[in-house]
Amino acid sequence: MTEVPEGEPRVPLRDQVHDELQARISDGRLRPGDRIFEQELAIEFGISRVPVREAIRMLQSAGMVEVRPRRRGVFVRSLDRQQLEELFDVREALEALAARLAAERSDSADVERLGELATRAREALDSSDTDAMSEANTEFHDKLVAVSRNELLASMLEPLHGRLAALFRLNLEPERVCAEHAELYAAIAAGDAERASEIARKHVRASRAMVLERMVH
Q1: Phi/psi of residue 89, each to 5°?
Q2: Which residues lie below 8 Å from residue 91, measured CB to CB, with a gap of 6+?
Q3: In sequence order, what are the residues at sequence separation of 6 or more whose Cβ sits closer than 8 angstroms to the Cβ of residue 80?
Q4: Tens of pLDDT, residues 159-201
Q5: pTM of this prediction?
Q6: Could you report the per-residue pLDDT of 186-197, keeping only the tens digit for each?
Q7: Coil, helix or strand at residue 216
Q8: What Å distances lie between residue 17 and 44, 47, 177, CA to CA?
């Protein structure tokens, strides 16, 4: 497990395992349908099975894994078309709210950071560095939610992003994503809450269409 610097609060083991498993699911190291073995994880992390089991329950509550009693195992959850439609319905509403609040509540430092991330993603796209572009775009979304300054909203969006992250890493429309992020940044910088909200809705709808058309069979 990750060492905790002296003087900093210790993160519970279950949270450390949860964060690591969530990262593995989000970046594709654990793919839909892959089985998760409690005992193997306990050995890997050098801990008992209790915090591993607790972490898995947290992921199950967030909809990222499922327990299949007949197969007696825990598996990374696959999303069917209906589940994806439901996720995007909720994400559209929440992202639009986040963008509106960001436009209303951001300060100059917030706006500057959003601009830096949008520019970084564009430069990465122009140099064909897809990993750097993906990282910058993810940070852009994270920063936008943080700028909304609404902790409940952030807590609701986090599991949605986690469940969709692996799909978005296979982004087949990078030019569109970077252009829409630039539009969103401009609206937030101008303090135009209505426009920011509408751009965010358009952005989620376009992502929904991309995922459903190209990634669901």
Answers
A1: -60, -50
A2: 157, 160, 164, 204
A3: 216
A4: 888 777 766 666 678 899 999 999 999 999 999 999 999 999 9
A5: 0.76
A6: 999 999 999 999
A7: coil
A8: 11, 10, 31
